[in-house]
Design brief:
Strand order of the largest sheet: 3-2-1-4-5
Radius of gyration: 16 Å
Number of helices: 8
Structural class: alpha/beta
Shape: globular
Number of domains: 1
Low-confidence stretches: 1-7
Helix content: 40-55%
């Protein structure tokens, strides 16, 4: 049975959709999510854990992730004028983190996330949260891709070609493999 796309109406167009991710690295699951969000309106992308890099779960710097994400959006044929990319550092408090997101991003109408914790945090603040269709979530997730980073044929099939090229061109494969 085909899944229905979420439809949203705020009475004002276009709507703004907030998407949160660490993008360690940007992968095909992210691109699928961003496509769904872009079909609904303007997209505000929060690149989370902006202060973290060169560790196992966060191998890439924020600057590297932003550049990979921009290149992947271009490769995917996205209209970049519909996207705002905002790096945001972690806090030690979930409530403070949501407030930080509100303070550092343009106003948004909807949060699109497959992460239940993120969804719960924004619902608690009164936001409408939409769960997107996830493309092969066991395959296209950052943890699985980072674990597969030593197996070229596996990880390279899970990320856009521009991300593969960026990692190789900037000699980041060792960083990717070890964090």
């Amino acid at each position: 049975m085909a899944r229905r796309r979420p439809t949203l109406s705020t009475g004002v167009s276009p709507i703004r959709i907030l998407v949160v991710g660490r993008f360690q690295p940007p992968h095909l699951g992210h691109m699928h999510l961003l496509k769904q969000a872009a079909e609904l309106g303007e997209v505000i992308v929060v690149v989370g854990s902006a202060e973290k890099s060169r560790v196992t779960n966060n191998p890439f710097s924020c600057r590297e992730r932003l550049e990979m994400l921009k290149q992947a959006l271009v490769e995917g044929g996205f209209d970049l004028s519909k996207f705002t990319l905002t790096p945001i550092e972690d806090t030690h408090s979930n409530e403070l983190w949501v407030a930080r997101v509100e303070m550092l991003t343009p106003k948004f109408d909807v949060v699109m996330t497959g992460n239940s914790q993120v969804g719960d945090l924004f619902r608690a603040k009164g936001y409408r949260v939409v769960n997107p269709h996830q493309l092969k979530p066991r395959v296209y997730n950052g943890s699985a891709i980072r674990r597969a980073s030593g197996r070229k044929k596996v990880w390279e099939k899970s990320v856009p070609k521009s991300v593969v090229n960026f990692i190789h061109t900037h000699k980041l494969l060792k960083v990717f493999q070890t964090g």
